[in-house]
Amino acid sequence: MSQLSSRLESLSREERAALVKLLRKKKEEGAAAAPAPAQEERREMPLSFAQQRLWFLDRLAPGNPVYNVTSVLRLGGRLDVAALAASLSEIVRRHTALRTRFEIRGDGPVQIVEPAAPVPLPVIDLAALPVALRLPEEQRVALEQEALPFDLGRPPLLRGCLLRLAAEEHLFVHVLHHIASDAWSIGVAVREVVALYPAFAAGRPSPLPELPFQYADFARQQLADLQGERLGREIGFWRARLAGAAPLDLPVDRPRPARPSFRGDGLGQTFPAALEAGVRRLAREQRASPFMALLAPLAALLSRLAGTTDVVVGTVVAGRDRREVADLIGFFINTLVLRLDLGGDPDGAALLATARQVALEAFDHQTLPFEKLVDELGLPRDPYRPPLLRALFQLLPDLGGVSTASGAPTGLAMEPYALPMETAKFDLVVNASELPGGLFLEWRYDADLFD
Question: What is the pTM of this model?
Answer without folding.
Answer: 0.83
